[in-house]
Amino acid sequence: MSDCLFCKIVAKEVPADIVLEAGRALAFRDVNPQAPTHVLVVPKAHHENAAVLAAADDGLADDLLKACHAVAVQEGVAETGYRIVFNTGPGAGQTVFHVHAHVLGGRGLTWPPG
Ligand code: 5GP
Ligand code: ZN
To answer: Which residues form a coiled coil (predicted)?
Structure first.
């Protein structure tokens, strides 16, 4: 998608602080971090949201989840605990419509979130 910010990051047309490239997934730091670790994990292929990704049923959702855990290990938050969030739809706060998992950790995380 030529007008998609995260497709441009995947294509390296927009700079990002990339922390992991794992097959069909790419992970980079959120520009406005909400925790000491705040990494966005995206499939390189464009899918609008988590529901569309799940419906694609080609193993990509599995790859994305595994990449999230690999990021947590690499960031040193796998032992202390971390959160994976998919904001899905505008009502849930999704603002970039290329599916992305937020991997958050490095501080205490309350539940339920705001
Ligand atoms: P959403 O609200 O869609 O779940 O999350 C979008 C996330 O993308 C936000 O946390 C926002 O800070 C992040 N973001 C927006 N623009 C950019 C950018 O240009 N680069 C990076 N690395 N993150 C961005
Ligand atoms: Zn995209």
So the answer is: none
Domain presence at residue 63? yes
- Tell me the CATH number at 40: 3.30.428.10
Instruction: Check residue 27 and report its DSSP letter.
Output: E
- Return the residue whose CA atom lies nearest to atom 13 of ligand 1: 30
Strand order, beta sheet including 82-85? 18-22, 25-29, 37-43, 101-105, 82-85
**Phi, then psi, of 6 in degrees rounded to 5:** -75, -30
What's the total number of domains in the chain?
1
Surrounding residues of ion ligand 2, Cβ less than 5 A? 1, 4, 6-7, 46, 98
**ipTM of this complex:** 0.99
To the query of whether residue 46 is one of the catalytic residues in this protein, the response is no
> Tokens 């904001």 correspond to what residue?
87
111 lies in some domain = no
Note the pLDDT tens digit of each residue in 42-57: 999 999 999 999 999 7
Q: Confirm whether 114 is domain-assigned.
A: no
